[in-house]
Amino acid sequence: MTVECYVVVHNIAKRHNVGTLARSATAFGVSELILVGRRDLNTFGSHGSTSHLRFRHFHSLSDARLFLKDKDCDICGVEITDTAMAVNQHPFKKSTAFLLGNEGTGLSAKECEICDFFVYIPQYGCGTASLNVTIAASIVLHHFGGNLLEHHRSPY
Amino acid sequence: MTVECYVVVHNIAKRHNVGTLARSATAFGVSELILVGRRDLNTFGSHGSTSHLRFRHFHSLSDARLFLKDKDCDICGVEITDTAMAVNQHPFKKSTAFLLGNEGTGLSAKECEICDFFVYIPQYGCGTASLNVTIAASIVLHHFGGNLLEHHRSPY
């Protein structure tokens, strides 16, 4: 079984995040970065890693979903829901696409609709702070890779 | 036993990284962000989280080490060395300070000298890409918190 990993970004608010996201996606073995909706992107911060990463664009979430389902891919939303599991406890089993919403507001109802299940990132200490969206994505990809992909050694 | 977590940054090259780092540090229960050497910082990207986080400054690495050792704190370098362990396999046991080097070059010999042990972040897929330093820090803090600190739920 070939296991693939995708990241889906819908109308990303801060375009410079796409470059940093591409860099982490490359480090963690992501096959394709899927941009839905807003197409313009700025790869600042990617340190050239975008050359090793495929980008794909869809106009709508349902088009992206069809593409992923055709590849027998789970769609995992990164969001707190009643059924969300801590990302470090989720038993990822097959090809998975991770859907991230905008910072602050998280995934919209429309975005949640295309997800098969949800994971959240546990926080520690007092109160709750928000994480940068590329950091959230990196932590999720790190866990997925640790479960299912071969690994190499790198400090960062 | 009270467990504390620290992040030590020595002459951070990209000042805007300090703000994003502060935001993740808050999310993952870090007690203090310790800046060594270069003092100037720009908290762009912190989303106000710096108000919940203490900063401390030392002129030299050895001064920072003395402060941390006085608190019976392990100093963990994030770097590939012969003895480095994958961060997701390290059995963190007590208060720990994480030392991160500059992107690209990693930790210098002088920085490595003050470390008690080292962890690295496994990468997945083909080749090796570099991670943004704040992303590397966040992944390490996420694991440390998961071992030793109480947690809350948050998507990002």
UniProtKB/TrEMBL annotation, chains A, B:
Q: Which domain of life is it from?
A: Eukaryota
Give the matching CDD domains.
SpoU-like (cd18096)
Q: Which InterPro entries match?
A: Alpha/beta_knot_MTases, rRNA_Methyltransferase, SpoU_MeTrfase, tRNA_m1G_MTases_N
Q: Which UniProt keywords apply?
A: Methyltransferase, Transferase
GO terms (molecular function) for this protein are: RNA binding; RNA methyltransferase activity
Read off the Pfam families from this record: SpoU_methylase
Q: Which residues form the tRNA/rRNA methyltransferase SpoU type domain?
A: 6-142
Its GO biological process terms?
methylation; RNA processing
What name does UniProt use for this protein? tRNA/rRNA methyltransferase SpoU type domain-containing protein
Origin organism of this chain? Carpinus fangiana
